[in-house]
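During the reporting period the student researcher (J.K.) took over the structure-prediction task from the postdoctoral fellow and processed the backlog of single-chain submissions. One of the processed entries is reproduced below for the supervisory committee.
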Amino acid sequence: VQLQASGGGLVQAGGSLRLSCADSTRTFSNNGMGWFRQAPGKERDFVASIAWNGGGTLYADSVKDRFTISRDRAKNTMYLQMNGLTPEDTAVYYCAATRGAWSSSIRSNYRSWGQGTQVTVSS
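J.K. obtained the following structure tokens:
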């Protein structure tokens, strides 16, 4: 598995979590990357994305001002800092790499997906 997501867990509403996505083979250092999430019975939705150089960040409206995406190219790791969590944020979170260097909110622009990490927010 080239991309490995971790950091999920159970948290109370209003709490925080930080997800990590490790690029174990150092394949995607020049690719954009992003986070998607999928709740039970729902589509896999875009959450946030970041360009190869750490710029060009994009966010879904539902997480803007609460979540922050970042990456450390030296560590080949991408992060998603999630603050102010609500039960509506409960989902499996997936990290992925884009086909090019830039960020994207479009699922079909992603070529490689990691396994998911479960985030559960209790009310």
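The committee noted the following: The chain is about 0% helix and 50% strand.
J.K. will present the remaining backlog at the next meeting.
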